[in-house]
Amino acid sequence: MKNALNWFEIPALDFQRAQNFYETVFEFQMPVIINEENFKMGLLPADAAAVGGAIVWNTNSYKPSSTEGVLIYLNANPDLEIMQHRIEKAGGKIVITKRQISPQFGFMAIFNDSEGNRLALHSNS
User: Fold this and answer.
1) Residue 2 pLDDT class (50, 70, 90 cuts)
2) Residue 61 phi, psi dihedral angles, 5° rounding
């Protein structure tokens, strides 16, 4: 079966702030693949077999939302609590702390990133 998700983009109001947030939470250096006057895009970490995504800044087309819209679950294995502890230090806010979905489906948490987007973390433990 193919993955239902093959790409995602997370809106940013301030590209540098968003880049700093995700670099801090994921502990990596974000490659910026588009850095134009009216459009910026930085890649989030993903291996070749994984679904990829990016943060994107463009004032005409991308607007963050902390309360509605699509909820994207980011991979936080082996234990999302590790990333959860970095979120507020990086300028985000925890909305729902780590809790079990079920023994079969692992754990989740919901947060707002530095730009005000509502996102989630998922891990197996």
Assistant:
1) low
2) -120, -15
